[in-house]
Amino acid sequence: HCGHAITALENIPILSYLFLRGRCSACGASIGLRYPLIEAITALLSGEPRDLIDVTLDLQGVPDLHRRVYEQSRRIGPGHTCTYGDLAAQLGEPGAARGVGQALGANPVAVIVPCHRVLAAGGRPGGFSAPGGVDTKRRLLEIERARFGDQPQLF
């Protein structure tokens, strides 16, 4: 890897950027499947518990609440979930569940910032702005063997 931080300001989904474009926006270096980030994402999507917390993100210019939400949600490990309200309380912002949801809805680096691990009250999936919507969110949680809502765990 070229060593540049992955920018959150490009406003494109990180997986599309890495897999379809395959180039670093800062230096133009080719990014392929042999790089640790791609390997880690591939392992996560294959069911291996990876949290991707070591990936450096450039969050300059991201609103403060969004940045704090992204940092806190990165601490939710694979297979675990919390609610928008729980995350708001962890940030010292009780009652800001909608603000947390708006921040996660604007998440430009889904999977690296695991917004799929944040649920609505009662374990309902809530929204998901990545391609495929809530179906993608459910699938990511199933891959991670997370329990959510009234879904029985298969493994």
Give me some keywords for this one:
155 residues; mainly alpha; two-stranded parallel ribbon; 6 helices; 35% helix
Walkthrough of the structure:
The protein has 155 residues and is mainly alpha-helical. Helix content is 35%, strand content 5%. It contains 6 helices and 4 strands, in the order E-H-H-E-H-E-H-H-E-H. A two-stranded parallel sheet has the order 1-2. Helix 3 crosses helix 5 and helix 4 crosses helix 5.
Write the layout of secondary structure elements.
Elements: E1 6-7, H1 14-21, H2 36-45, E2 57-58, H3 64-73, E3 82-83, H4 84-90, H5 97-105, E4 118-119, H6 133-143
Parallel strand pairs: 1-2, 3-4
Helix pairs in contact: 3-5, 4-5
Give a brief description.
By secondary structure, the protein is mainly α. It is built from 6 helices and 4 strands, in the order βααβαβααβα.
Distance between the termini: 35 Å
The total beta strand count reads 4
Shape: globular
Derived from helix and strand composition plus strand pairing, the structural class reads: mainly alpha
